[in-house]
Each structure stands twice: as C-alpha cells, then as structure tokens.
From TrEMBL:
Keywords: Pyridoxal phosphate. This is dTDP-4-amino-4,6-dideoxygalactose transaminase. InterPro entries: DegT/StrS_aminotransferase, PyrdxlP-dep_Trfase, PyrdxlP-dep_Trfase_major, WecE-like. The active site is at K182.
Amino acid sequence: MQIPFNKPYLTGKETHYIESAVKAWQLSGNGMFTQKCHAFFEQHYGFKKVLLTTSCTDALEMCAILANIQPGDEVIVPSYTFVSTAIAFVRQGATIVFADSESNTPNIDVSKLEALITPKTKAIVPVHYAGVACDMDPIMALADKYNLIVIEDAAQAIDSCYKGKPLGSIGHMAAFSFHETKNIISGEGGMLVINDEKYTNRAEIIWEKGANRAAFFRGEVAKYTWVDTGSSFLPSEIIAAFLWAQIENLNKIQEKRLTLWQSYYAGLKDWAEANGVHFPLVPDYATNNAHMFYLICNSEAQRSQLINHLKGNGILAIFHYQSLHSSPYYFERHDARELPNSDSYSNKLVRLPMYYELDVEKVIAKIKQF
Ligand SMILES: *Cc1c(COP(=O)(O)O)cnc(C)c1O
C-alpha cells in the first residue's frame, strides 16, 4: 500500500449538500450555502466581513485591488512562500521586495523588516507558514508607524491563533485557501477576510464584476450598475455546498490532524535528535493547527536520501518552496539578493504525509529505519 503525501478527506455530506443546491436551482454564487459559510466564519472567528472566492490566489488579488496597489508601489513578501503571495500584487504592477525567513521558523523575520521599508512601500504580506503565526504585534506596529496595509496570507492558517486571536483577524485583510491540500477543502476555493471596514463596500463590488449588486439586493440603491473594477471572484453554490460539509466537521478534522501531528512529534523525537534533524517550532505566541508536519534536515543531501528512502518504501514525502527571489521570473528583472534562511528551508525542509486517514505509525516506523 502506497502512502501518498495528501489525500482529500470527505466527510460524507458533500454530495448531499451539492444535491440540495442543485434541487433548489441555486447554482450561481452567493446563495444559501455561500451565506451559511460566510455566517459561520464571521461568527466563529470574529472576522468583520468574509467573502468566499474561487481560490486564495483570487482573494489575494482582491486584496491587491482593495489596497489600491499601483505600478511602482513596493510590497514586502517573504521569499519562502507560494508564488500566489507575490503574483497577486505583481498583476497590479507592484515591485516585490522579498524578506528573509527567521532562522528558527520559515515565517518572515520581523527583526529585518523595518530596513526593507521605503517611501514607496504600500503593504506587507506575512505568510503563516504551516498554520503557525508570524509575530504579528511588531508587524502591525510597523504598519502603524509607516502607514502600511497588512494582508495576512492565511492560506494554511484556518483555526489557528496568535496570542489568542484567530489568524486572519489581525491584519487589515486576509486570504484563506480551501484547496484540496489544506485542512478543510472545496477542491479549489478560498476566502477573503476584511477586518478594516473601510474596504467592505468596495470588496462586495469587486467580488461581483464591478457592479453594486449586493447593495441593490439590500435595497440600498435603486439600480444595479457598473461602478468599479472587479472580476468574477465568487464561487458557485456547488463549491460552497461542498465546503459547508467540511465546516460542519471542522472540529473533528482538527482533532484528528492534531493527534497525527503529536504522534509524529513523540514518535520521531529521539530519532531526530540522533540524526541532527529539526522539528517545527511553535512559538509561545502561536498555536498549532496541524496543517503540516515538516522536518528540517541537516543538509540537502540528507534530505534527498530521506525522501528516496521513503519513496523506496512507498511513502511520498516532498520538499516545499524554492525561494521566490531566486526564481527565473524574479531573477531576470531584479538584482540578486542574499536571503540565506529562505534558501536554507528551500534546501533542507521536507514535509511528511499529513491527512485524515493517514497510517502515521507506518511512516514513523519507516523513518526510524533511516
Ligand atoms: C495554498 C497556498 C496559496 C494558494 O491557494 P489557492 O487556493 O490554491 O489559490 C497561497 N499561499 C499559500 C501560503 C498557500 O499555502
């Protein structure tokens, strides 16, 4: 039996809710299931306003539009992240300024942030890697001091906290993902969170092709018409119906993932110490949502050997981001920069299989043979 890296978990109710949406003849966006999802996230996490989107990438694009990013504006993004974190702002013409990771976590190194701020800086985009919070207080303090917008890339960060506050509720805006590799899923899917109410009205308009449809249906305007830029960022009810089944099982999914994470931790501790391999660090200010269990090997060679050893035993473990500052797209357009911690994670970090139905003891046993 092969052990994949990820296997989407189905709660059993997904097709049932999709059928309800079909039978209600409400298949386009913003119907009953979308509104149920919105209400859940707003009430459960205290987000001021949420809008489901077709992906986290789309939610980040909405953030870039709402932040009014113009050509030449600078946006600070960690180099160790998914390409969407940067590309959403590049599409608005932003110049991306890459920041390094911390030495003890892949998150953005806050101590080096202020040096990257210039008069052109418009926004900072912290990424909560593996669902573990960035140190948000100093980031928000810098944003205050320099009048910057903070957009949390919370793609991996559902149901996780910073000093007791849910991730996604701290920055001016945030973006989540429900891609099938995340904790709760809808195949493709995402969510925009607005915490600064000055963006709310415009967000609704941009979400639905630049038209004031939401205000029209609330009876606030007499005609529904084209008033702004935008796109079709909203998902169909089929996606929202699927997501609703996942939301109903959020606690069960989270408990299971945390148990698996703890098993990895306890089962591999001695092995890791003996082999010079490091575990994920969860700082005191952060919680763990068990999005991912990763190891940091002592060298790229050790990582390749471990990945190959597991592959030989039918287990798929994979590395993660290649630093974006060294990517062909960026490199051809900018001066070379040294971001040693980001490069170190690119070369040494490996992610172990993590999904609801995982046989974690088997993976642990095979790693210990290495
Ligand atoms: C998954 C992910 C994204 C992209 O999410 P999509 O829903 O696939 O667009 C963006 N940023 C990070 C950090 C991610 O992990």
